[in-house]
TrEMBL record:
Keyword flag Protein transport: no
Cited InterPro entries: CstA (IPR051605), CstA_N (IPR003706)
Keyword match Methyltransferase: no
Domain CstA N-terminal: 6-349, 351-495
UniProt family annotation: Belongs to the peptide transporter carbon starvation (CstA) (TC 2.A.114) family.
Domain of life from the UniProt record: Bacteria
Subcellular location: Cell membrane
Keywords: Cell membrane, Membrane, Transmembrane, Transmembrane helix
TM annotation in the entry: 6-26, 61-79, 85-108, 129-147, 159-177, 186-205, 217-238, 247-267, 279-299, 320-343, 377-395, 426-445, 451-472, 479-501, 507-529
Name used for this protein in its record: Carbon starvation protein A
Length: 544
């Protein structure tokens, strides 16, 4: 069997899902343009900025994608490529797209606030506090990890550092111009085309002017950039950079598809399903924790209800941004699987341990792009740069999301400190950056990283819980949300239970305690949700 049919069939399934299942989901949430979105209600030019759907999609897609839909699926192929593909398609359509859209719509109906505030409005203040503490801790972990990864990438690939700096400068210029031509569609199109051309040119230019600094300097520069990106108006830096960067990934996807169709490589990997792995554990629940982005990821709910919901111009824009954005990411995950199953099982196993998933992805996809006449070394560098660029989008988006979370946690507190943290974005962002630095300097993130997959999927289960309770209280049949919710709780609780026991046996008590705390946290929130539903306080229906 060759790779082309797999890619074409997966693409057709995802497109059909958008129009068929998507129509059902959109109706359930009662999406219409009669409501004024938070971007218009609370327009402040900093966080609440109504924007074109293509621009918001670019920001949202760039933020949720990162390296997740590449790394996770490639590692999960350890269990066999068939279960990986099935979970990506089923999970992306019936779990991830519903999760992302639900989080976004629920946020829009709650003044653009985060899932934490939605939990407060539907479950109670205690539920909000527990969720906010958990999500804030997760975001700080992500910031620390990605700052470290990007700093090391810049050291090993100075050309990537140069290109990334040029991208940021280009984004500022684009954001400045876009603000002045916001109502002129033709000029926006022209400026976009010029910006995209310059961005691709900067990919080449970066390799010609490599910028070299040591690790510590890069680390502090990256966190300083994250601080600036968090407090700067979203339309000036974050939004235009993500919008332009999204065309890197669109270009990657297009070149990958054309390269696969032209080269039509044979799938060399066997079709055996491996129920366990010596390094990873059992297929259930590890497969569903390893493939997060691409199927369902709790981090998406923070983006959807954090930055994205504040930029939605018309409510129907959530269809392409929330539901469509997730399905595009699922297709990228399918491409990631395709990049490695052209290898035999033996070659895949040895290459994964020796090179790592990102390099394996870059080499596999680069070789297929080379069939189009592109120099293979340039194709491989382009793929690697694209992955690095999206790791940077994750860093700055997470910093802004952590700031939102901190502000919402202290919202309504009359104490001067609480007021400062909730109202002053500079102080709250400064705390986020300082905590990230302390985490990196302590080296704690290397210890916590193995548990991140389970924590991320627990976040997805909790977001689905919040959306389900909200729908039930609006008298909407929430079965299409409840089924994914129960499955994700089963996956995460099983995973955390196994993780806690294994680390307790290995005398890694810190990891065992963290896993146990997360386990208890989820149970407490389930109990609070149950009590809230028993007291049943109706709220505004989604369709009204």
């Amino acid at each position: 069997m060759t790779l082309s049919p797999l890619l074409l069939i997966a693409g057709a399934i995802l497109i059909a899902a958008y129009f068929l299942y998507g129509k059902f989901v959109f109706k359930k949430f009662g999406i219409n343009n009669q409501r004024k979105t938070p971007a218009h209600k609370f327009k402040d030019g900093v966080d609440y900025v109504p924007s074109r759907p293509i621009v918001v999609l670019g920001h949202h897609f760039a933020s949720i994608a990162g390296a997740g839909p590449i790394v996770g699926p490639i590692i999960a192929v350890t269990f066999g490529w068939i279960p990986a593909v099935i979970w990506i398609l089923v999970g992306g359509i019936f779990f991830g797209a519903v999760h992302d859209l639900g989080s976004m719509v629920a946020s829009i109906r709650n003044e653009g606030k985060s899932i934490g505030t939605i939990i407060k409005n539907t479950i109670g203040q205690k539920g909000k506090q527990l969720f906010m503490i958990f999500s804030f801790s997760t975001l700080i972990l992500v910031i620390a990890v990605f700052a470290d990864i990007i700093a090391k990438t810049f050291i090993n690939n100075p050309g990537v550092a140069s290109a990334s700096i040029l991208f940021i400068l280009l984004a500022v210029v684009f954001g400045f111009l876009n603000k002045r031509i916001a109502h002129k569609k033709s000029l926006f199109t022209i400026v976009s085309i010029i910006g995209i051309i310059l961005m691709y040119y900067f990919v080449y230019l970066g390799t010609q002017i490599p910028f070299e600094l040591d690790y510590q300097i890069w680390l502090y520069l990256l966190l300083a950039y994250a601080f600036i990106a968090s407090v700067t108006p979203v339309s000036l830096l974050l939004q235009p950079r993500d919008y332009l960067n999204s065309f890197l990934l669109y270009g990657l996807i297009i070149l990958a598809v054309v390269g696969v169709l032209y080269a039509n490589p044979t799938i060399e990997m066997d079709t055996h399903v491996h129920l366990s792995s010596e390094n990873l554990g059992y297929l259930f629940p590890v497969l569903f924790v390893t493939i997060a982005c691409g199927a369902i990821s709790g981090f998406h709910s923070l983006v959807a209800s954090g930055t994205t919901s504040k930029q939605i111009d018309k409510e129907e824009d959530v269809k392409i941004v929330g539901f469509g954005g997730m399905l595009i990411e699922s297709f990228l995950a399918i491409i990631s699987v395709g990049a490695v199953i052209i290898l035999s099982r033996e070659d895949y196993t040895s290459s994964l341990s020796a090179l790592g998933p990102v390099t394996l992805f870059s080499n596999g996809l680069g070789s297929m792009m080379a069939s189009l006449g592109i120099p293979e070394s340039l194709a491989i560098s382009f793929v690697a740069l694209t992955v690095s660029a999206f790791a940077l989008t994750t860093l700055d988006t997470c910093t802004r999301l952590a700031r939102f979370t901190l502000q919402e946690f202290f919202e309504g507190i009359e104490h001067p400190v609480g007021k400062s943290l909730s109202q002053n974005r500079f102080i709250s962002t400064g705390i986020v950056v300082i905590l990230s630095i302390l985490l990196i300097r302590s080296g704690g993130f290397t210890t916590l990283w193995p548990i991140f997959g389970s924590a991320n999927q627990l976040l997805a289960a909790l977001a689905l819980l919040a959306v389900a309770v909200w729908l039930i209280k609006t008298n909407v049949n929430a079965t299409f949300v409840i089924i994914p919710m129960f499955f994700m709780f089963t996956v995460t609780l099983t995973s955390l239970g196994i993780f806690a026991w294994k680390n307790f046996e290995d005398q890694a008590y810190v990891l065992a305690i963290i896993a146990a705390v997360l386990f208890i946290l989820s149970l407490v929130l389930i109990i609070l949700a149950k009590k809230s539903l028993e007291q049943q306080s109706p709220i505004t229906q989604p369709g009204n």
